[in-house]
Design goal:
5-stranded antiparallel β-sheet; 35 strands; single chain; 413 residues; globular; 6-stranded mixed β-sheet; mainly beta
Length: 413
């Protein structure tokens, strides 16, 4: 199998979270490859991609990448690398397209809760409620170099003397408004800004140029689980309070204001949010603790889908290209969906193979053998990162879903 078209290391564009030395020195210092992956497992013929996929066909993951000591909590694409982080405090860098373990970084900084990348910068959120910024450079012996921790020392020194800069987080406990009072659960980078969402119910806005905290938004009534950005002017946050909120950025340096509140089902938490950018507005989708995917148009806020996607909670959602979307679940499966013109979704396939809940997903346009499709990376509480090739399918095999459906599914395992 031949994998082609990997991107350069230092991309000039941002990689969304929901989408998120010299070579000779690197080769000599790189860790050994993962112990468990074998491209011989890839038995699916791309020429048969348009045929219905049944549970009897031989289709396995391209690779099972092992090395984390804890559950895989988040993934991000960074040029030619795929980054995977875990509750075990380590961030592993895998080289595309050969899936070789390239290096590790970030050890000792606490369990990693979220990853985001923008150009040659990587941002990591940790259980200690702080964000770390890393510079990626092939010209340095230390390819991933820590450049600052947010809030920065300069930010602290400029605010800690004034009592008006403190907010009360619980009884007899105050922190500076630039600090998160609980774990940071999600990150997004857009238009020169970093957005961090936390279990403390707030969103904080940071400037990428100097890492200064610009704003703290009291966003929700419960923990914030996911953040997605659209066009640099609107930010969407999904929360355990059962709402997705759209925050519009004001002009002239003004802060963000709530533009719309999208209600989910009663007593259901939104665990994942993604937003598409399309001519005419785009769509926002949320994955809930009841296993459903809900979608709305970003213009007019019309509901476009409400689908029973999984048996149990949807934990993560990612987009691929203009028309594909994937969802990972506590039921250990990955759902692959095709998005229709009006925002509805049709089930493309279901992928099984993990031994634990699927916590994070990332998709990459790397191509295999010239066939249509994409690479999909899934991280799980079973401590593994699996790599899948998702083939394209003929349109007549899609099942359009904008409500409940009991259609029999096509499975990959």
């Amino acid at each position: 199998m031949m994998l082609q078209e990997h991107t350069p290391l230092l991309s000039t564009s941002s990689t969304p979270s929901s989408r998120s030395s010299n070579s000779s020195d690197a080769e000599s210092e790189s860790p050994a490859p993962s112990l468990r992956y074998n491209f011989q497992d890839f038995k699916f013929k791309l020429t048969a991609a348009s045929a219905p996929i049944s549970s009897t066909q031989s289709y396995k993951s391209l690779a099972v990448l092992s090395g984390h000591v804890g559950s895989v909590s988040c993934l991000a694409l960074c040029g030619e690398f795929i980054l995977s982080a875990s509750q075990g405090r380590d961030i592993i860098v895998w080289q595309q397209p050969d899936l070789r373990q390239f290096t590790k970084f970030g050890q000792g900084d606490g369990a990693v809760k979220a990853l985001a990348t923008a150009g040659n910068r990587v941002f990591t959120a940790h259980q200690d409620s702080r964000i770390r910024a890393w510079k990626v450079s092939r010209s340095s012996e230390n390819v991933f170099k820590l450049i600052d921790t947010l809030p920065t020392t300069k930010d602290y020194l400029g605010k800690f003397m004034k009592q008006s800069n403190y907010v009360q987080t619980r009884r007899h406990h105050k922190v500076l408004w630039i600090e998160h009072a609980d774990s940071i659960s999600c990150l997004a980078v857009s238009a020169g800004l970093i957005y961090s969402g936390s279990w403390d119910k707030t969103i904080k806005v940071w400037r990428t140029s100097d890492f200064k905290c610009l704003e703290s938004i009291k966003a929700h009534d419960d923990a914030i689980n996911s953040i997605a950005t659209s066009g640099g002017t609107v930010v969407y946050s999904g929360s355990a309070d059962g709402r997705i909120k759209a925050w519009a950025r004001g002009g002239g340096g003004k802060g963000h204001s709530c533009k719309k509140v999208l209600e989910g089902h009663k007593d259901v938490s939104f665990n994942a949010v993604v937003v598409t950018e399309e001519d005419g507005g785009g769509f926002v989708y949320g994955g809930g603790s009841d296993g459903r995917l809900m979608g709305w148009s970003c213009e007019g806020w019309r509901g476009v889908c409400d689908v029973r996607a999984h048996e149990t909670a949807v934990l993560c959602v990612c987009l691929m290209g203009e028309r594909m979307m994937c969802s990972g679940s506590a039921d250990k499966s990955v759902g692959v969906w095709r998005r229709e013109v009006g925002g509805g979704v049709s089930r493309h396939m279901v992928i099984r193979g993990h031994q634990g809940p699927v916590k994070c997903l990332q998709a990459s346009p790397l191509r295999a053998g010239g066939g249509g499709g994409f690479m999909l990376y899934s991280g799980s509480l079973d401590k593994s990162l699996r790599v899948w090739w998702v083939p394209a399918a003929a349109s007549d095999h899609h099942h359009h879903l904008n409500g409940d459906s009991d259609n029999k599914l096509r499975f990959i395992s």
